[in-house]
Design goal:
Elements: E1 2-14, E2 19-26, E3 30-37, E4 56-62, E5 69-77, H1 88-104, H2 112-127, H3 135-146, E6 161-163, E7 168-170, E8 179-180, H4 182-192, H5 206-223, H6 233-237
Parallel strand pairs: 3-5
Antiparallel strand pairs: 1-2, 1-4, 2-3, 4-5, 6-7, 6-8
Helix pairs in contact: 1-3, 2-3, 3-5
Length: about 240
Amino acid sequence: MQVKTSGIVLHQVRYTDSTVIINMFTREFGRMAYFVRGANKKGSACRSALLQPLSIVEIVAVHYPRKTIQAIREMRAAVPFFEIPFNPVKNALALFIAEILLKTLKHSENDDDLYNFIENSIRKLDTCKEGLGNFHLVFMIQLSHYLGFGPNMENAEKAFFFDLMNGVFDIQAPSHTHILNTEYTNSFRILMTLDYESMNLMRLNRTKRSELLDRLIEYYQLHIPDFHPVTSIDILHKLWD
């Protein structure tokens, strides 16, 4: 069956000298894998530029229910980027976000709300001018709500600790070690109130930003089975002073 849908490129891997397999989160089918033959060659269904992480594309593909990898016939850019491919910081953030999505979007089910959130986030990444250092932190917190394990804000104002294992703020420290101390709990609480429009209001030094990112990764590892280490995180730790 030939279908048309929009999708967000997450990852590509070479299959043969002339064929790559791309993982994509699509609006109609959720996460899917596709063969792309002859990328960037004359007459190819797509150019290699369209296969970069977080590219938002429209595709025409052939879908067979019993196949795990489908075939793309046509591909074009649905949202042209102006800064992500050319801005080193935004490019690094795109690689990180694509890796997070690759590790979390494991089910091939459509979810319009989740798709819209991710696409709107990518659009904002391409155009935002302020608060870029907090973008990935805000993204991960907001994404956690769409994935069903968003932090509970109850008791947040009077809490001294955030319990990463149970996703709650607490006055007393839990018996396990997966917690944020008082200083980082306060920063985490503020971070949870921000969005892409207000993320520039929070000032963080490199140490605190890196620690918050590490704890968010830990939070994801606690709530998503088989959430393996994030390889692109080292680049982000080196970006901001």
